[in-house]
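Recap from last week: sequence in, structure out.
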Amino acid sequence: MLKEAVKEAATVEEAKRAVAAELGMAEEKLQFKVLQMPQKKTLGLFGGCPARVRGFIEIPPAATAAAYLDSLLKAMGVAGTAIAIQEKENGCVLTLEGDEDLGFIIGRRGDTLDALQYLTGLVANRVDNAYYRVTIDIGNYREKREQALAGLAKKVAGQAARTGRRTSLEPMNPYERRIIHTAVQEIEGATSWSVGSEPNRHVIIGPSDDNPAKARSRSGGRGRRGGD
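Predicted C-alpha cells:
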C-alpha cells in the first residue's frame, strides 16, 4: 500500500517536514520528490511560488494487515496485545500475544478468529494485485485445531472402513474441511465429501466404493473423495 502526501511551504525542507507530520512518520523513512522549487517574488511584489514536495512510503501487506488487525482489536476493547509478524511465501502469519486471556477472541470453533482473519485478509489484498494469504493465530490454536480435526477424521474414517456406515460432521469452514479430506485420504477403505451450503456446509465420511463393508451398510450412497 502506498502512503503519500503533498505539501507546500516556503522552502523544500519545510515542505518535507510538513509531509512527515501529515503522514506521522520520520523524514528518514520517507522518499521525497520535489514537484516545484520555490521562487522569490520579482521586486518583492510579483510572481513567486512556494516549494511543493511529495513524500511517500510503500507499506508491505503484512504491516498493513497487522495495523488493521490492531485497530479491530482496539475496537473490541482488547488493549496491550502485541502482534508478531512472520512473513511467509505469498502471505504472513499474525500471532497475538498478551498478558490477558485472549481465548474469547478465538470464539466457538474459532468463528471469531476466522472472522478477524477474513476481514484482515481483505485489507491486505488491497495492497497489490497478487493473492496474499493472512493467517491469525493465538497460542498455537491453529496447529492444535488442525491436529484435533485430523485425529477426528482418521478415527471416523476408520470406523467407516470397518462398519460401512457414514457419519456427518459438524459444519466447518473450507480450510477445516480440507484438513478433514486430507486426513481421510490416508485411511484405506474410507472416503469423504462435503454437502450443504455455507455456513452449514459439512463433511460426510463413509466407506469408499471398493470397500466390501459398504454393501453391508444400510446407509448406502456414494461420495466423492476429498471433495469440498
